C-alpha cells in the first residue's frame, strides 16, 4: 500500500514478521496500492502515483511514470496542507529521502516507504517479500504456506480477508487467525473532525515519533470477529 493508514502499521507493530505480498496481482481498478487520502482544509485530498498498466500483472512488475512531475506535485500538496503541523519538517524530509531514490517499480517505492516509516516509529518487525519465498500455491493455501515457512502459529489480518480466507484450513494446521480490532484512537489533527483513515503521514506530521502511542490496536479471534460483524 502507498503511504498507508495507521491500521497497517498496527498490524506491523503486532507481528514478529511482516510479509509484503509484492507478487500478488495488482488490482485492475482504483486501489490503495498507488493512492491514499490526506487531510486538507477542504475535507480530504488524494495523492496518486501514476502507473503504466499492462493488463494483469503482479504488483512487483508495475512501473511508475518515470518523471518528477507527480513527485513534485505530492511534495507541494503536502507542504500546502501540513506546513503548520508541529512535525512537518520531519515528515517532509522523510518523504524527500524516499522520493529521491532512483526507483521505477511501485512495489519498491511502497516497500521502502513502509519500512522507513516503521523504523521512524521504532517498530522492530522483520520484513520479508513473498516474491523471495518461491511459494506458488494460491489463496488461503499460499498464506498458510508463507506462515509455515517461518514456523508461525498466528496470522494477523485486516478485515477484507473475511471475504476469501479459509478459516478451517488454518485451524486444521494449528494456525490461529486474528483479525485487527481497530481502536481508531484520536490524535491531534489539523482541519476539523478527526479522520482515522488518512495516510500515516498525517500522524507523523502532527505527533512525530511520539505518535507510536497511537499505533495501539489489538486483535480478536476470527470466530468472535465474524460473529460480531
TrEMBL record:
It comes from the Bacteria. It comes from Paenibacillus aestuarii. InterPro entries: WbqC. This is WbqC family protein.
Amino acid at each position: 500500500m502507498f503511504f498507508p493508514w495507521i491500521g497497517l502499521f498496527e498490524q506491523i507493530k503486532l507481528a514478529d514478521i511482516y510479509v509484503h505480498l509484492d507478487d500478488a496481482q495488482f488490482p485492475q481498478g482504483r486501489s490503495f496500492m498507488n493512492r491514499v487520502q490526506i487531510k486538507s482544509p477542504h475535507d480530504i485530498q488524494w495523492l496518486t502515483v501514476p502507473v503504466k498498466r499492462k493488463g494483469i500483472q503482479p504488483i512487483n512488475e508495475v512501473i511508475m511514470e518515470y518523471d518528477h512531475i507527480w513527485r513534485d506535485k505530492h511534495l507541494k500538496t503536502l507542504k500546502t496542507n501540513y506546513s503548520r503541523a508541529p512535525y512537518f519538517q520531519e515528515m517532509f524530509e522523510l518523504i524527500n529521502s524516499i522520493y529521491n531514490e532512483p526507483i521505477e517499480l511501485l512495489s519498491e517505492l511502497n516497500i521502502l516507504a513502509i519500512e522507513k516509516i516503521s523504523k521512524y516509529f521504532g517498530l522492530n518487525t522483520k520484513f520479508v517479500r513473498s516474491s523471495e519465498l518461491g511459494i506458488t500455491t494460491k489463496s488461503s493455501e499460499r498464506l498458510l504456506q508463507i506462515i509455515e515457512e517461518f514456523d508461525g502459529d498466528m496470522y494477523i489480518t485486516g478485515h477484507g480477508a473475511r471475504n476469501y480466507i479459509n478459516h478451517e484450513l488454518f485451524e486444521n494446521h494449528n494456525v490461529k487467525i486474528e483479525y485487527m480490532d481497530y481502536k481508531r484512537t484520536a490524535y491531534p489533527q489539523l482541519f476539523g473532525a478527526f479522520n482515522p483513515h488518512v495516510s500515516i503521514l498525517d500522524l507523523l506530521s502532527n505527533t512525530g515519533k511520539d505518535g507510536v502511542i497511537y499505533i495501539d490496536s489489538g486483535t480478536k479471534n476470527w470466530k468472535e470477529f465474524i460473529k460480531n460483524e
